[in-house]
Amino acid sequence: MIKVLFFARLREQLGVGNLELSPEEAGTTVAELRSRLQARGGQWADALSADNLLCALNQQQARGDESITAGDEVAFFPPVTGG
Question: What residue spans define the domains of the chain?
């Protein structure tokens, strides 16, 4: 299974903090996972379509072309701002 986490505004928009997906459901890359989640439509498409959305793979910032496999953890979160 692949654990998918959603933080901050994304968690609120989606109404869920995490999902467990099979590798077949998730796809093979971070970008494919994001695309498959967006394909759910509605709030999923809206929440995950932001250009500045950040992603981490196993707690390390990740690019869309990085491979995912069973046992991985993928997190999506909005950019962090501070002041």
Answer: 2-77
Q: Which CATH superfamily is domain 2-77 in?
A: Beta-grasp domain (3.10.20.30)
**Backbone torsions φ then ψ of 17, nearest 5 degrees:** -95, -25
3-class secondary structure, 57: strand
Which residues contact residue 81 at a Cβ distance below 8 angstroms, ignoring those fewer than 6 apart? none
Q: What residue type is 76 in one-letter code? A: F
Of 25, 53, 29, which is closest to residue 37 (Cα–Cα)?
A: 25
Helix (H, G, I), strand (E, B) or coil at 76: strand
- For the segment 1-47, what is each residue's pLDDT rounded down to a tens digit? 999 999 999 999 999 999 999 999 999 999 999 999 999 999 999 99
Task: Record the pTM.
Answer: 0.92
